[in-house]
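Appendix B: complex inputs.
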Amino acid sequence: MGILANVKLSKKDMLEELQAKLRLLHKKLTQQELLDKCVEFTQQNFDRFVNEHFVDVALTEEKIATIKKNIYHGEINYPGKTHDELLYGG
Amino acid sequence: MKVIIDTNYFYALYVEKDIFHQKALALLETIHQKTKKNPSLGFLTNQFVVQETYTLMNYRIKQSHFLHKLDELFFGKARFFELYYSNSHIQEMKQIIQVMKDYIGMTPKRNLSFIDASLIYHAKLLGVNQIISFDGHFKNILEYFNKQ
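Resulting structure:
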């Protein structure tokens, strides 16, 4: 195991809470093990991590223009069916 | 204030032939104006709505390149809402199913689909005040749970 840097943890309470929740599920992990697993999880769910934390979701003129440019103007299939009928039958 | 978005809004926004298309476009403009004045106003949707929107579009429109346009909305440069993913999948599924059970017989036309129930569940979970949907039954439900 490598020591990279001293990291100050501002969410220590959350870490302890996570540890306690896992203990209830009979999983005893040290804080170090738990942090390692969190990093691993982030690595495995990288797209989701980026989506949730680093994408600017403010609606801009540019986004509106992109949406309008992408509008579909053609015919649709099953025009006589509602969305529910099409998706779920009936 | 938070607002959660349903499948039929995305569909109406992207499909000119939909009867709610003009309304969806006008709403987009309203969202733009409101978020300019109040940047803390948050819009979101969940993973189930994304799945349902792709399915619906794929059934209605037989052009593969159209799905690429949806990619821009959900995963690319056109996204204007947070994308909420379930944290604890099994636990959350059970909770959503519980919402389906709780609302049996309470909606006018049909009982809730899993996706509808997920919107209600996430609305409660995330402190959402409004649902953008052209599905009438949400109105009654929102009034119901806002009183609780």
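Chain A touches chain B through 31 residues (CB under 8 Å).
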